[in-house]
Amino acid sequence: MARVPPPGSFIPDWHRCTESKEYFNKIIHKKKRKNFGLLESPVMPPHAAVDTVHYKIFISGKSGVGKTALAARLAGLNFPNVHHETTGIQTTVVYWPAKLIENGRVLFFRLQLWDCGESALRRFDHLLPSCKEQVDAVLFLFSFTDRTSFVDLLNQIPKWTESSHGCLAKVVVGTKFDLFMHCDVAEKDVRKFQETWRLPVLRSGGEVSDGLGDVAPILNCLAENLWHQDCVRAGAAIQHPQQESVTLL
Predict the structure, then answer these.
(1) How confident is the model over 47-98, as pLDDT tens digits?
(2) Which CATH number goes with the domain that contains 188?
(3) What is the DSSP letter of 100?
(4) How many independent structural domains does the chain possess?
């Protein structure tokens, strides 16, 4: 069976390395992130051509936790300070380059983030199946200022661990981490959650900067988990025919 690389396959904080500038400059314009449409992509010169891997990611969480704001933050877009619930499905495209430690290969991750308002999901039965179709990962969100959203993770996560959804990458993000004066979720509860569910819990909050440091931990974690998931699938695909041939002989 093919060896599956463990988490840590990509160079950490590669966006800080000088050699990465050629790639990150393709997603930044005048010190701000470029906005890519559904049919747009970064264009590299022939000598630095890279493969692009495509993934669909659904953002799950209670109304008001900041799903739309997080998608905008990850894409480098502006978002309103006043909360307005998403009325239907909203998609956002994010490109993120990463470099493999093992062989130095550079990949562009194309992450299509799907966000849907909680009320719309309850009202229209066809929206959730559309969000789940061919999904590769789920971002589970809770707000550090709303304990009920943290407790609700216990209801959300089991719905995505059923065999019908196959192998999914799962990452948890706590939003509004900067509002520590209004924090309603203790760090000891987060640590206990991580120990129980064995899922990464990342933090987001504060003003959106022009740099990449505030989004790099989340995007790097997503890239790691999605790539690891693909390697597991590829290994299983290789193993299955081998087992069949032994049975036939």
Answers:
(1) 888 999 999 999 998 888 889 999 999 998 887 666 677 777 888 999 999 9
(2) 3.40.50.300
(3) B
(4) 1
